[in-house]
Write a structure and sequence with these properties.
Layout lengths: L18 H4 L17 E9 L2 E6 L9 E6 L1 H5 L9 E8 L4 E7 L5 E2 L4 E2 L3 E7 L7 H12 L4 E7 L6 H14 L4 E2 L8 H8 L3 E6 L6 H8 L25 E5 L3 E5 L23 H6 L24 H20 L6 E4 L2 E4 L10 H5 L4 H17 L22
Parallel strand pairs: 3-5, 8-9, 8-11, 9-10, 11-13
Antiparallel strand pairs: 1-2, 1-4, 2-3, 4-5, 6-7, 12-13, 14-15
Length: 408
């Protein structure tokens, strides 16, 4: 990520140098009176194409509580990305058309890369028990991605009404051995919805993530009945979900809770550090805390002296994920650097072709330096060759000694 606006230390909205100049009084205009403040602070609740919707901390004139905003060019030049969940400062506000421009982004407490959500307090992994069937490897990958964020992780299993109580009990016991207490819910019958609603209504941002077709939008409709989000059926032949959610958006739940609905994806990326992978499994964190392994660079593959061992339920899943992480690391090290790219603000950008570069005015004013002397010498050498003269003889005295070129 690029540079972020400095924090004022008091939890207030970020500031920019031009804020004082932006707070100007608007002249009188026909129609209802409007506010004289051209700036506001708020929370990014949705990203749509090149615009973001910002929910204001306090309503503006006429009760305006949301603004449709673009991003200031200087943010893009520094490589700073705006994400849902960011606290931002909006300048150049047009209260009548409800438009503005995001000028600064406050420092983030956390950032999810996929889905891109900032300042989240809880990651809620949503999986379906059936339709499509629950895959332990896929569930493990989602849980590892969630654990890598460092925030609280909850596990919600949907479509609980389609399984027998004995099967639900078996899944609950299996996941308890993994270190999780799952929430078993059904959006159709309402089973488990109210306790989950009270749990997620705590102040903060909770992000729903999971594969397509597990019922995230249906779950949100059950938790917040006024939403009426579009839902889609699972493909009958492939048993895979169809994408119905196209962008990330925050919805209010309870007094201070916010839920982020995100597009589904079936294969989350694993954390890149193989040495830190085992620490993302809650069932073995206690073993790591009790004492270190015999070797400091141990990858916990059953070597002698390893405190993690192999007698835990997800050990085969750990080995499979570890091999994938090691393969990705080896591929990244062997991959040659892409030519013509440069790093700017944490991302790669095309490098300008040197043939297209032009000297700045400062360099042009300095053009009488050594470069100009070298160019004059080159011109003199070319002139001497044209006149069949010795180039080294030029510049001696007033005109130098002219030595005729030898004849044929």
């Amino acid at each position: 990520m690029g540079a972020e606006a400095p924090d004022r230390g008091d939890g207030s909205c970020p500031t920019t140098p031009g804020l004082a100049r932006a707070q100007l009084a608007l002249g009188a205009s026909p129609g209802p009176s409007i506010a004289t403040d051209l700036s506001a602070c708020g929370l990014v609740v949705a990203l749509e194409a090149n615009f973001c919707r910002v929910a204001l901390e306090s309503p503006g004139p006429g009760g305006v509580d949301q603004l449709l905003c673009v991003r200031r060019t200087r943010l893009g030049k520094t490589g700073q990305q705006i994400c849902v969940g960011d606290r931002v400062q909006v300048e150049g506000v047009d209260w009548i058309s409800r438009r503005g421009a995001v000028a600064a982004v406050a420092p983030r407490s956390s950032l999810l890369a996929r889905p891109a959500v900032a300042n989240c307090n809880r990651v809620v992994v949503v999986m379906a028990l059936v339709q499509p069937d629950l895959d332990p490897i896929q569930l493990t990958r989602f849980l590892l991605t969630a654990e890598a964020t460092g925030v609280q992780v909850d596990l919600v299993l949907t479509k609980a009404d389609l399984l027998a109580p004995q099967v639900l009990l078996e899944w609950r016991q299996r996941l308890a051995a993994w270190g999780y207490e799952p929430w078993l819910v059904s959006a159709q019958t309402g089973v488990g919805i109210e306790p989950l609603r009270q749990h997620l209504a705590a102040p903060g941002i909770a992000v729903l993530c999971g594969p397509s077709g597990v019922g995230k939008s249906s779950l949100l409709n059950a938790l917040v009945p006024d939403l009426a989000l579009r839902v889609g059926a699972v493909s009958g032949r492939l048993q895979r979900g169809r994408h119905t959610t196209r962008h990330v958006e925050l919805f209010a739940i309870g007094a201070g809770g916010l839920l982020a609905d995100t597009p589904g994806f079936n294969r989350p990326d694993l954390p890149p550090d193989p040495g830190a992978l085992v620490g993302l499994f809650p069932e073995v964190r206690g073993r790591l805390g009790a004492g270190g392994c015999r070797f400091t660079n141990c990858l916990h593959q059953g070597d002698p002296g390893c405190v993690v061992g192999s007698d835990w339920p997800r050990y085969p899943h750990y080995l499979q994920c570890l091999q994938q992480v090691l393969a990705q690391e080896a591929a990244a090290q062997s991959r040659p650097a892409e030519p013509g790219l440069k790093q700017r603000g944490g991302r790669s950008e095309p490098r300008l072709d040197p043939r297209l570069r032009q000297l700045s005015r400062k360099r042009q004013r300095q053009g009488d330096g050594p470069q100009g002397e070298d160019s004059a010498a080159d011109l003199g050498a070319e002139e001497a060759e044209d006149r069949h003269l010795d180039p080294g003889a030029l510049g001696s005295g007033a005109g130098g000694s002219l030595n005729p070129a030898p004849g044929p």
